[in-house]
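Reply to dn_fold:

You asked what the input looked like. This is it:
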Amino acid sequence: MVQLFNAETGEHIGEISQAQLEFLVAQMEEEHPEDQDYYLNADLLEAWRQQGADPALLDLLQKAMADKEELTIRWSK
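and this is what came back:
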């Protein structure tokens, strides 16, 4: 499983599947091949929801955002 963390605080967000990680990688802009940090915001999550993205992944990310408008996450295997 792949672990997700809040990139700013180091707080563990949860586990995602390889398929969910592949979705994130495909959707996000990487600055370099080893990039494992992604910036998210509420509008982006809503766009993914409308595109039919995995509801479990979106729920996990929405929960991690809580009442914030944006979040930077990082992943680790």
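Strands lie at 2-6, 12-16, 37-41, 70-76.
Hope that clears it up.
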